[in-house]
Amino acid sequence: MDHTESRDGTDEPTDGTRTTPAPGPAPAPASEPASASASGPVPAPGPVPASGRTLDPEPRPDPAPQPQPQPAPESAKKRRRPWVRRVRRTVLVLALVLIVPLAAVETALRVNYMGDPADGTHTRNRDAMWLGHAWVDGRKKDADVTALAGRLRDTGVRDLYVHTGPLEHDGTLPTSVYPRARWFIDAVHRELPGVRVQAFLGDVLANGGPEGLELSDAATRAEVVRSAGQVLDTGYEGVHMDLEPLHSDDEHYLDLLDDLRKLTKDREAQLSVAAHQIDPLPHLHSVAGLVADHPKWWSQEFFGQVARRVDQIAVMSYDTARLFESTYGGYVAQQTSLALEVTPPTTHLLMGLPFYYENNPSHWGHAETVAAAVRGARLGLSRTDPDRELFGLAPYIDFAATETNWKEFEDGWVR
Question: How far apart are CA 90 and CA 83, in angstroms?
Fold first, then answer.
């Protein structure tokens, strides 16, 4: 998710001219068969032309027609070209294995985007927003907080995840990276009473490359917990963890959440996490793991295990590689339903919105619109749990947001 500040025949002369070989001696006249002498004298040979061929003084009778070769039967052609059949079979298999299922999935997502959301599926005044690092490193001023408050005051945003990391790979967090955190927390409380400020802490995990935070190391996990306590001491009202790429079924991550939950409960603070998307097809994370070092999805079961350990879970429902707005919206509707099915009613579920524009193979800006995401989330909520109170949307991220993003969010969700 980290959009924060953060492929030979005859030789020819090389000069292109053709050399004609010198003519050799003319061949001797061919002798006639014995049957010719019996019918009379043998005619004298005629003049020999420069070409060396003997010319008969009178035309000879046409030779007997020779049988023409018959075309090989079709079966013989096939036997002589077995590679053609193999290529055709391979193309057909690829079409059946790849194209047909893909077309079926895209059609299903488009159908999933059809229909109307239920009445009342609008903001519950429990939305959240991810904020960049500039709010705590000294770049923002009082006037910026006033402008932010003006933007958020009439929305349902009640939690701010402000980027306060990143963590070091050993789990530690230098205080020098968030020198203005206390100022920002106080400013938000002054301008937006009732809005909570949580420390957004993240890092790249070692399973995503040669370097990163190693969750399997108990000492590293202990340092992460200590860093969480450190930001709570600063005045934050919660800790928001975003560790990527996080494989499904990672038991060490669940151990870390258990330890963090003990800390936040003791401090009466929130524990929230940014979550990967759920398998849109059964066991897709396992299949993707065969061809990718860090597959994108979690199993639905693992998502539920994470959701039961936290106060808030926010699905990063963007960067989906969908090509059309309708299929992206249908995908968000599907993700919303899958998440609602396994998130306990005591855990606050949020669906992420793409408040940024990019064009690349994982995110097509013309398809991944805020309007499609909002409508998709409402459809999933309508079909699965329309009366759920602990539900909201979470725009990502403030510094990349456009006026169009805000308008689509407000028109579709804030009423």
Answer: 10
Candidates 231, 242, 304; CA nearest to 269 is 231
Res 68: pLDDT: 67
Q: What is the pTM of this model?
A: 0.77
Contact yes or no for 396/314 (Cβ under 8 A): no
Whether the CB-CB separation of 200 and 150 falls below 8 Å is answered with no
Two structure tokens written together for 244: 């990527």
| C-alpha dist (Å) from residue 48 to 25, 30, 42, 60, 256 | 12, 13, 17, 17, 104
Q: Provide the CA 179 distance to its chain's centre, in angstroms.
A: 36
Mean pLDDT by 10 residues, the chain (415 residues): 46 41 44 41 43 44 62 55 80 71 83 96 98 98 98 97 97 98 98 98 87 97 98 98 96 98 98 97 55 75 98 98 97 98 98 98 97 98 98 98 98 94
Residue 198 forms beta bridges with which residues? 161
Cβ-proximal residues to 317 (8 Å cutoff; 6+ apart), any chain: 277, 331, 332, 335, 336, 351, 352, 353, 373, 377
106, 290 contact by CB (below 8 A): no
DSSP state of 97: I
Q: Give the separation between CA 360 and CA 366, rounded to whole angstroms.
A: 11
DSSP letter string, 225-291:
HHHHHHHHHHT-SEEEEEEES--TT-HHHHHHHHHHHHHHHHTT-EEEEEEPEE-SSTTHHHHHHTT
Q: Residue 354: is the preceding peptide bond cis (ω within 30°)?
A: no
DSSP string, 327-384: HHHHHHHHHHHHHHHHS-TTSEEEEEEE-S--EETTEETTTS-HHHHHHHHHHHHHHH
Strand, helix or coil for residue 294: coil
For 54-208, strand residue ranges (E) read 127-131, 157-163, 196-204
Cβ atoms of 143 and 408 within 8 Å: the answer is no
**Residue 32 region by backbone torsions, left for phi larger than 0, else alpha for psi between -120 and 50, else beta:** beta
Counted residue by residue, the chain has a size of 415
Q: Which helix (H) or strand (E) holds 102?
A: helix 100-112
